[in-house]
Amino acid sequence: MNLNMPFMVITVGDTMSTKGEAVVSIRGLTMSYGANQVLRGINLDIFQGEIIGYIGPNGAGKSTTVKIILGLVDGFKGQVKVQGEDIAGGGIEYKRKIGYVPETAEIYDTLTAHEYLTFIGEMYGMDFRLVDRKAHKLMALFDIADVYHARIASYSKGMKQKLLIISSLLHNPDILFFDEPLSGLDANSVMVFKEIMTDLAAHGKTIFYSSHIMDVVEKISSRIILINNGQIVADGSFDQLSQKCREGSLEEIFNQLTGFNRHKEIADEFIAVLDEA
Ligand SMILES: Nc1ncnc2c1ncn2[C@@H]1O[C@H](COP(=O)(O)OP(=O)(O)OP(=O)(O)O)[C@@H](O)[C@H]1O
Questions:
Q1: Is 212 exposed, middle or buried (0-12, 13-18, 19+ CB in 10 A)?
Q2: Which of 28, 92, 122, 126 has the fewest Cβ atoms within 10 angstroms?
Q3: Residues 133-167: pLDDT tens digits?
Q4: Are strands 77-82 and 51-55 parallel, antiparallel or unpaired?
Q5: Helix locations, 187-257, DSSP H
Q6: Element (H, E) at 63
Q7: Which domain CATH number covers 238?
Q8: Ligand 1 center to 15 CA (angstroms)
Q9: Is residue 221, in this structure, part of any structural domain at all?
Q10: How far is the CA of 143 from the centre of ligand 1 (A)?
């Protein structure tokens, strides 16, 4: 592992001229919570059909970036455009084209999935019967159709996660933001969801996928963006990043670019503290 260049910026993506207009365009994005400057000048263009693996250490600002794009967080500086529309303009129409699986979600869990999903669908202007039929079919494909009329409070963690995924996709959005979408899913469901992501991109959808599961990000992403200390420190396909960093896995690239190699030392110290009398 080469730790001599922990904070270099690696950008190896194509230029805009080869890909048309950006679906999401971010310029000079900064964001602070009080004295804590979380984002320090993010510049980013995301293009149709890309699966962006958006990675970085805990607290790096991944969820904050997504929430700003979705219009859920105010107080940022810089410019964010979604399909050419500046989100600071106050319009909400662009949100119809977006689906979102948040890292942690508040679901109305006294509702049944039937009630919840038809409510969400109708909020997007869908016909009740259409959303009901689609919701039931999608629940069946995730093997949870039998609880369609059961209260969400009775669901396991993975069942709730499947429900969140379905609710993000019901209205067939063009741009998907998935924040740790695999959380709680069993191995079979992970395989299904990975295929769904690939198919969505092949159908021209754009996916912004934030996760700490490096081997999935490595395999699924057409482009990987790593942020550290509020800045983009790497941007390119896995093959491009691995050639530049001379590392074999995304986990090792992550270690190198975040300047981290103390895992063994920290684990040893952790055990030593547990052993203290
Ligand atoms: N509502 C908030 N108020 C104050 N600080 C916040 C708030 N939300 C996030 N932060 C801070 O912003 C920083 C970035 O948080 P964010 O959730 O964007 O990180 P992340 O990269 O998604 O992390 P993780 O990988 O742990 O999910 C952290 O220091 C966090 O404490």
A1: middle
A2: 92
A3: 999 999 999 999 999 999 999 999 999 999 999 99
A4: unpaired
A5: 187-202, 214-220, 238-245, 250-257
A6: helix 62-69
A7: 3.40.50.300
A8: 30
A9: yes
A10: 34
